[in-house]
Amino acid sequence: MAPGMNYLKSTESDGYRRRLMLLFWVAAFFFLVLLARLFYLQIFQGHEYARLSENNCIRLQSILPHRGLIYDRHGRLLVDNRPAYDLLIVPGDVKNMDEVLERLAALTGIAADEFRDRLERNRGPGYRAVLLRQDLDRDAVGLISARRYDLPGVRIDAKPRRQYMYPGLGAHLVGYLGEVSLLELQRPENADLRGGDFVGKTGVERVYDGVLRGERGGRQVEVNARGQVIRILQTVPAKPGASLYLAMDRDLQEETEKLMEGRVGAVVAMDPNNGQVLSMVSSPSFDQNLFARGIRSDEWRALVNNPHRPMENKVIQGLYPPASTYKMISAIAALEEGVVDSETRFFCSGSIRYGDREFRCWRRGGHGSLNLKEALERSCDVYFYHVAQRLSVDRLAWYGRAAGFGRRTGVDLDHEEAGLVPTAAWKRRRTGVPWQGGETLSVIIGQGYNLATCMQAAVMIAALGNGGTLYRPQVVHEIRKAGGGILRPFTPEVTGRLPVEEAHLELVRSALRDVVSSRSGTARRINDPELDIAGKTGTAQVLSRKSDDDETSSRPGFEPHAWFVAFAPYEKPRIAVAVIVEHGEGGSTVAAPIAADVIRFYLEKQMADDKALE
């Protein structure tokens, strides 16, 4: 081999050895660092880590935020939070579950089987806390705290619990909280919720749940082998929810509920100039605190089996024939379509024959000759039967929908019903049978297939009062941050206008004033010049009477529903009211006095407030 080649091989071998030695020393350096770290942990920190590995571990606990409060329009507190104590257990920390549950049963007076059932239904990963009981009484909390060393895995969490300051007041408007369901947990907007959390189920508690809820916090804690907290390592505080200021006036709400006590039905009062809901009553009501503490099965059965349906919000979910309160829409349709004018007169003898059927007026002796204004004032059915023969059901339906019937008002509450404004096409789709002319005679006086909610009636009468503007009813006046700043102010929302020219609208409004102020008006008994009420009575038949001798409607449960809608004062309305009393019979004798008292209370209160500001 040539000398030059030996030299090259020797050079390559030296370079290889140098690289190998460099790699060796780098590896040796890292090995020494690792050895030093292990030596430090073993010699200097060994005792501490042995204690942690044998007895302790680090866990994360969530911190529930304080739910936003709810006030009335004047800043008076309606819904608060109070401290409550929940009993939880971490299964992974318990060696003998039956023994621990029996001890808990002895201390709390709650059957151990109830704890077992709860544990089985909610069991998850071994170290996830399971809620055994909500809202423990203070005696049980004291006993468990004193025996905590005999109860491995058991802990008591202090949480804010909802407190409704006036049980039952505005229950359907305010709503209530309930434990989150599995279906609710699966919704994307509820990603921060956990089993056992409480969420809004109805009313503004549900609609504004995301605003009221706030943001969950958490803390890192060290626990011993029995699952008991040794120390708190780190905390991320929860962010409280925003507060709601309702449009409701608490005093008016209380007064309205007193007026409806013992009755079944609904009342809603609105500001006709902006759509704010001043009071909303669905009777009978219920105590929301039953749900806040966790309602018992017997309490729930009593509510859902009550024939008067206390859980139904009759203001937006109760569907009733609007009866004669619908005649204002019929009058507007007749005037705008040109089938009658202010001077058109028809004679009422007490009934009219159409085809092979006789359609009666509510007044058997009849009203004689009337024009449109007088027909509204006296609520003459026969006059509108004549109109129905000149006006198609589809044109009538168009005006009904334009006035807000047959569609949701858009109130910021859940599960609002749309009601029904029938048309010829609707009947054919539903029954396969063509529309009959006689059915228009029923529909034009608010009977037949017509169905409306109390809220729809309130929006309509408010529009008549304010000059024709339809507002979306709103129950929340304002949303404020926890620190006090306004998050969302109230803004009126116009949803449409009554399709009527000014002269025709004034004719109808004037007739409504005469309903109350005229000697022949159907609501004359509530006349008070100081209130200057304009309104309309209605008596909705539950079942059709086939003859004058048919006494079906006088049997219990078949009496007609009583309606009254009104606004006041006539010139510059400040309040609009709709009242429906189920099986109350006469709108003039039952519903009208309730509405008058609501109006009187509110206007007198407004006058007192105005004087206080002077």
TrEMBL record:
The gene is mrdA. Pfam families: PBP_dimer, Transpeptidase. It is found in: Cell membrane; Membrane. Keywords: Carboxypeptidase, Cell inner membrane, Cell membrane, Cell shape, Cell wall biogenesis/degradation, Hydrolase, Membrane, Peptidoglycan synthesis, Protease, Transmembrane, Transmembrane helix. Residues 265-599 form the Penicillin-binding protein transpeptidase domain. This is Penicillin-binding protein 2. Its main location: membrane. It is a single-pass membrane protein. SUPFAM superfamilies: beta-lactamase/transpeptidase-like, Penicillin binding protein dimerisation domain.
